[in-house]
Design goal:
single chain, 270 residues, mainly beta, five-stranded antiparallel beta sheet, four-stranded antiparallel beta sheet, 1 helix, extended
Length: 270
Amino acid sequence: MAGVYECVADNGLGQVAVGAIRLQVHYPPEVEVEKSTVYTGEGYSVVLVCFVYADPPAKVIWDREDSTFDSSRHSEPDEVVMGTRHELVIQSVGRDDFGRYSCKATNSLGTMTRHMSVTGVADRVEITSEPVSTAPDVYDLSWQVQSFSPVQEYKVAYRRSKHNISVEQPSVWKEVIVPTTGSEPVGDVLYHQRITLRGLEPATAYDLKIQARNAHGWNAVSDQFRFATLTRGEALESRIAGTGGGPSRRLHPLLGSALVLAVIILPAVL
């Protein structure tokens, strides 16, 4: 409710009279963080950001939990943008800089603290392959991940999904350890990988998730992804369609009616 209020008086004679008054509402600090987890690597610079709202204005203190905070290696910017944005800049991150940081705001009415983590593990894996296979018993899986240090290996886990009509419970997760290809990352920190899953059941939906490991350990598990294999008849249709006048489009029934997706069936060599 804070702001400028106007009182307008008019009796039909002369100009309208206007009086204004500003209402200022005092309240304790409210703190938000831009990112709760910040991914980086040794030798890189990183910026931690928190937004502080308070009246009267709050004093903001950065701190690090469970370790000594070396202020000489961390610097606040000379200018705070828009009065609510506060930054902590960590120059040339070292292994000792990884950990949990806090942004603490205090005024005469109270205190609020929010936390954020600086980590060297990779970000979550993003699966980039199509959700429908081009064959009844194999699936070409591809993904990418951002990591500021080289990825050493991946863990791919998949299972037959409960989404299948004939299955009451999903099957047990099957895990596969995938070594890296050794190729250079795209854009220094973005890694791509591709494998083929074999021995799958035709006309079946599968759940899938992936993790990546670098020198700092395993990252968080990716969002669960669902893909489906073709029936043998659909695989034959896709080959025939590939030799005709242009690609065909179909929606795999196992992916459910809630997923509206047009899939281009490309020529496949079995």
